[in-house]
Amino acid sequence: MEPLRDFIRISSVVRLKVIIILAVCTASFGVWYIWGLSLNEIGQYISNYQNLAIWNLVRQPVYYPNFKDFRNDVMIGRLLLNKTKKYEIIIYGQMLAEMNKDVTTCPVNNCVIHNDTTRWINSDLILIPNRLFPSGKRPHQQAWVAFEYESALHTRFSDELNDKINFTASYRFDSTIRTPYGMYTPDEPKTDINKTIQLIKLEDIAKGKDRAVAWIVSNCNPKSPRNAYADELSKYITMPGINLPTSHLGFYALTLLICAFIHEAGHALAAVRERVRLHGFGIFVFGFYPGAFVDLNAADLQSLSPFCQLRVYCAGVWHNAVIAVISIIIFYLLPFLLSPGYHVGTGVGVTYLREDSVVTGHRGLALGDAITRVNSCPVNQQSDWFKCLEEAYIHPSGYCVSGAYLSMIDNKASVPRRSLSAVVSVNKLDENDSFESVSNQNKLNEDCCTVQSASTHLCFTYITPTKLSSTSRRYACLPARAVTERTSCNVTSDCGNLGAIRGNNNGIQSESLGVMSTRSMHCVVPSPPDNSTRLVRLVHNRHKAPAILFLGPLEDLVASIGVSDYVPRWPSILSPNLPSFLGLLCTYLFSLSGALVILNVVPCYALDGQWILKAFLDLCLPGILLSRPKRNMVFTVVLILGSSLLGLNLFLAILYLCLQANYSGGLPNSISPITSVNT
C-alpha cells in the first residue's frame, strides 16, 4: 500500500504542477487589464486603463486625397484647369436621400452634386457606386470614379468599364479616395473632419505600447495577403499561448524538460550535501508535458535544522534562477560567440523562402544569401530591411537616364490606358473560385509596354520641359534591369544635369527645346499598374549573380522572405537558422526558468513554496511566537492566501486564453493570394 500511496501523492502533485506551469507559462501577465474593457449601452468603447476615455465609432468618414500627390495627373489637371466654374458631379444610380447633403466641410466647395442621369454627358465627374453606369462613350474631359464598399474580389463592375475608370474610391489604402467603413476616434467635443483625417495619418502609433493587439476582421477567409501580414506582425507582437506557432512546440517541450531536470537536480544535489538519503529520481512525460522528480527521505529531511531545510527547498529555485541569468547572457553574447561562423552587420541572411515565390529559382535567392541593399538603401541588419522596404513603398526610387537614351525609345508620350480589374494569383485559387467581376483573372492593366516586352521591360514616367517654362509627363517602355542599375534619384536635380531646362518666358521653339531635352538627364520612375505595386531591386552577396528585381505588392515580398541578422560565412556547411534556433532556445529558457522561479516561491499547497514557508517560519518566528500551534496557524493562513491568489490569477489567465481562443480560433494561418484593384 505504501508504494500506491506514494504513486497517488506524486501523481496529484504532478497534475497540479502541469496545470499551473502550463497556465503560468502560456498566459499573458496582462490579464488584469481585461477588467478595463467594456461597452456601454450605446456601443461606446470604455477603457479604464486610459482614464475612462470614451471612444466613438465614426461611421463613413471620407478622406479626400492630397491633390499635391496627383498634381501631375492629366485628368486632375483637366478638372482643375477652369477654377471659376461650378464642377458638376453626378452620383449615378443613387438616390440623394441616401447621402449626406452637408458638403460644407468639403475642401472643394465649388461643386454641384445631383443624381440626374440625363445630364451625365455634360458633367465633370461621375461617381459610380454600383453596377449602373452610362452606356455611352466617356467624354474626353470627364472623369469616372468607381465607388465600392466591398472588396475588389466581390465587385460586380462590368468589363465595359475597362479603359473608362480614372479613379477609385473604396476602403483600401491604395484607392485614390479612401472611404473606410469607420474608425474609432476620441469622443472630443467639436471634432472636425481635419482632426479626423490627422488621426489616420499618425505614424508609429504602436510606439511605447506593450499590451495585446486587437485584430478586427469581417471576413475570416480572405483572398488578400492580410493574413500573411498579420502572421509576420505577430512575430514581433507576441501573445504567448495564442500566436506561438506549432514549430515552437519542440522548443517548448525541450526547455520545459531542461528547466524541470535542473530544478530537481538542484534539490538532489542540496540533499546529498546535507546528507539526506536519496531514494530515487527520474524523468516522466505526463500527456505532452515533460518533467522530472526526486524522492528524498522525509525523516532525514525533517531532522535538519530550518536553515538546512531552506537550502534543500530553495535549491531548485536557485538553479532555475542561474539558468535564467545564463540564458539571457548567452542571448546577448550570441553575435560574439557565433562570430567565427557568422557575419553580423553586413546584411541580412535569408532564412526562409516561400516555395511558390517569384524570388526563388536558379537566378533567385537561396537560403544563406545576404541581402545587402534594397534599391539604393543599405541593409545592415533586420531593422534596416523593414525600414528600406517601407522607404521603397512610400518613396519609389527613380533612376537617372539621359535624354539621348530616351530619344531612341519609340514612345508617343501618351498617358497609359487604365482598366479596372483584379490581379489574382491563379495558382493559389481553389478550383471552385470564380469572380463575376473579372472576365479574365490574369488580365493586368494595360500600360505603355507591349505584351511582347512585358517580361523584360517596364513602363517608366518622367518629366520633360515644354513651352512657357512648364512641364509635361511622358512615358517610356524601358528595360527594367538596365535602368535599375543606373544611379538612383528622387527628383531630376539628383541626376546632376537638370532635366527641366528652362528658357525665357517669351517662348522657346519646340524644335530647339526637344534638342536641348535630349542632352539632359531625366529621373525616370516606374509606373506600376496599381498603387500598391512597387519595383524593388534586391542586391545580394552571391558572386556572378545579378540583382533580383521584384515587381508586386511589398507585403507579398515580406511574406515570401524570412531574414536574420546573421549571415553564414559558409552557407553550404552552416545552417542560416542556427542563430535563430539558439536565440529562441535562450528566450524560452529564460522565460520558463523565470516562470518556475516565480511559481515555486509562491506559498501554495503541493509546491516548493509550501515547504519554504514552513522552514522560513520555523527559522524566523521561534523568538516571536514560542507556541508551535500559533506558528502553524500563521503558516496555514499565509498558505491559504497564497494559494487563493495564485488560483485567482490562474483562473483569470485561463479565462483570458479562452476568450482569445474564441475570438481568434477561426482565423486561418495560410497565406492568401494577392488581390488588388488596378486603375
TrEMBL record:
In terms of InterPro entries, this protein maps to: Glyco_tran_10_N, GT10-like_C_sf, MBTPS2, Peptidase_M50
Q: What is its EC number?
A: 3.4.24.85
Q: Gene3D superfamilies from the xrefs?
A: Glycosyl transferase family 10, C-terminal domain
Q: Name the residues that span the membrane.
A: 12-35, 249-266, 278-298, 310-334, 578-599, 634-657
Keyword Transmembrane helix assigned to the entry: answer is yes
User: Which GO biological-process labels does this protein carry?
Assistant: membrane protein intracellular domain proteolysis; regulation of response to endoplasmic reticulum stress
Query: From the UniProt record, which GO molecular function terms apply?
Result: metalloendopeptidase activity
Location relative to the cell: Endomembrane system
Tell me which residues make up the Fucosyltransferase N-terminal domain. Answer: 88-182
In its keyword annotation, does this UniProt entry include Signal? Answer: no
Q: Which GO terms describe its cellular component?
A: cytoplasm; endomembrane system; membrane
In this chain the Peptidase M50 domain maps to: 252-641
Among the Pfam families in the record, one is: Peptidase_M50
Catalyzed chemical reaction(s): Cleaves several transcription factors that are type-2 transmembrane proteins within membrane-spanning domains. Known substrates include sterol regulatory element-binding protein (SREBP) -1, SREBP-2 and forms of the transcriptional activator ATF6. SREBP-2 is cleaved at the site 477-DRSRILL-|-CVLTFLCLSFNPLTSLLQWGGA-505. The residues Asn-Pro, 11 residues distal to the site of cleavage in the membrane-spanning domain, are important for cleavage by S2P endopeptidase. Replacement of either of these residues does not prevent cleavage, but there is no cleavage if both of these residues are replaced
**Membrane topology type:** Multi-pass membrane protein
Which UniProt keywords are present, listed alphabetically?
Membrane, Transmembrane, Transmembrane helix
- Tell me, in one coarse class, where this protein mainly resides: membrane
Q: What does this protein do?
A: Zinc metalloprotease that mediates intramembrane proteolysis of proteins such as ATF6, ATF6B, SREBF1/SREBP1 and SREBF2/SREBP2. Catalyzes the second step in the proteolytic activation of the sterol regulatory element-binding proteins (SREBPs) SREBF1/SREBP1 and SREBF2/SREBP2: cleaves SREBPs within the first transmembrane segment, thereby releasing the N-terminal segment with a portion of the transmembrane segment attached. Mature N-terminal SREBP fragments shuttle to the nucleus and activate gene transcription.
Q: Under which name does UniProt file this protein?
A: Membrane-bound transcription factor site-2 protease
Task: Specify the species.
Answer: Schistosoma rodhaini
